[in-house]
Amino acid sequence: DAGVIQSPRHEVTEMGQEVTLRCKPISGHNSLFWYRQTMMRGLELLIYFNNNVPIDDSGMPEDRFSAKMPNASFSTLKIQPSEPRDSAVYFCASSFPSQKSSGNTIYFGEGSWLTVV
Amino acid sequence: GIQVEQSPPDLILQEGANSTLRCNFSDSVNNLQWFHQNPWGQLINLFYIPSGTKQNGRLSATTVATERYSLLYISSSQTTDSGVYFCAVEAAYNTDKLIFGTGTRLQVFP
User: pLDDT averaged over chain B?
Assistant: First the structure.
């Protein structure tokens, strides 16, 4: 399997622009997560989906952030309008209910490195 | 929500040394995983270990769920072990929500 695929890998954008990050989870996984990593706040869970349905979006920082999962193989995280403080690495991850010995093992994509200037 | 604390925050070792990383959590958990983030930012799952002990090569982990802590042991460390080690947990009352600790930054020098 190709693993969790994220795009773009790197993006530099100007303040006020819309940013769309994309994620393709591992085939067969039924949970999808969006995390944000910064030096100050570490790894924060923004939102997660189970069977394409948003379950918990309490980590989404504000209304400028939105996430969708229109089908089992695709999700987007959108920031509109973007601000310099949104600069971070955004990770997508997916998991599936597995054997008890390995649990809900979660697999991360390589991240989207966002810089807002 | 559940709190996850890791110690030490930073660790510097010479190649060949052993180390122990600790993860304390504030509530009962259904899931505990250890991750390694390499210097290129990639997050790799090391262990799923809500309880008991597991070993994988030079790495092993032990979780004592009743006392709410987990330990990650690295033996005969190598420069490729450098990076940040994260502990992440799912609270028993809030499954599927994996909460990460602040991490331990490990630097291994030749």
Answer: 94
